[in-house]
Specification:
about 210 residues, D-Maltodextrin-Binding Protein, domain 2, about 30% strand, binds 1-O-pyrophosphono-5-O-phosphono-alpha-D-ribofuranose
């Protein structure tokens, strides 16, 4: 039997991913708990649960055949993978934000802005394309606190409801990227296991509201 190993990201994409695969007939067997390789109700599919930033790494290398990741993490990784399916959940935006009371985009005295972010590549390229020099400061979470503590002037981070920005006195200044969950696939594995891929793709699309037209 040809098996497909699918990398799922821990965190906010995990539950919607599980629901989607369950509707497609591949329900993960039990809770992930501490187990990181999980069989499913379809013996031809097993899941691997990893940190969001690692999904593109596992899929690009072929350690996983497929994965679910956000386009934010995917573009930041630069991984060379196929993107056969948008999954329709996990919508958010990658934005530049800064304190509501501070001038934007010019800073007093013409100093170079420091920008805190978990997305150094996307942030760097956004400002480079615009010809605006900035200093990128890489952090791994709780980015919104950086301007409050003078670690940075601005941040580049994800916005969903906007609650985290508001709670920290920040406002959106520019949108860099609209993001959402996508299915990604290893290039070689997609060719070698084509029938299994196409079957899974059809099952994932089946029964979704946008497939009923
Ligand atoms: C994400 C993101 C923002 C927040 C945005 O953080 O980095 O902080 O969610 O959501 P909102 O607009 O609905 O408030 P996450 O919860 O993943 O934690 P992290 O910042 O520690 O990575």
């Amino acid at each position: 039997m040809i098996r497909l190993r699918i990398a799922l990201a821990k965190g906010r994409l995990y539950q919607p991913s599980v629901e989607r695969f369950t509707r497609a007939g591949a329900a993960p067997a039990g809770d992930a708990g501490r187990r990181l390789l999980i069989p499913s109700s379809d013996p031809a599919i097993e899941f691997l649960v990893v940190k969001p930033g690692d999904v593109p790494v596992y899929v690009e290398s072929g350690a996983a055949d497929l994965g679910v990741t956000g386009t934010d993490v995917l573009r930041e990784s630069g991984a060379d993978v196929l993107e056969p399916l948008e999954l329709g959940f996990g919508a958010c935006r990658l934005v530049v934000a800064s304190p509501a009371a501070a001038p934007y985009p010019e800073l007093p005295g013409g100093i170079t802005a420091r920008v805190a972010t978990k997305y150094p590549r996307l942030a760097q390229s956004h400002f480079a394309i615009a010809g605006r020099p900035v200093d990128i400061i890489q952090v791994n979470g709780s980015v919104e606190v950086a301007p409050l503590l003078n670690l940075s002037h601005w941040i580049v981070d994800l916005v969903d409801t906007g609650n985290t920005l508001r709670a920290n006195g920040l406002v959106e200044r520019e949108t860099i990227l609209c993001c959402g969950a996508v299915l990604v696939a290893n290039r070689a594995s997609q060719k070698l296991k084509l029938d299994a891929y196409l079957g899974l793709m059809a099952r994932l699309a089946l029964g979704e509201p946008w497939s009923r037209a």
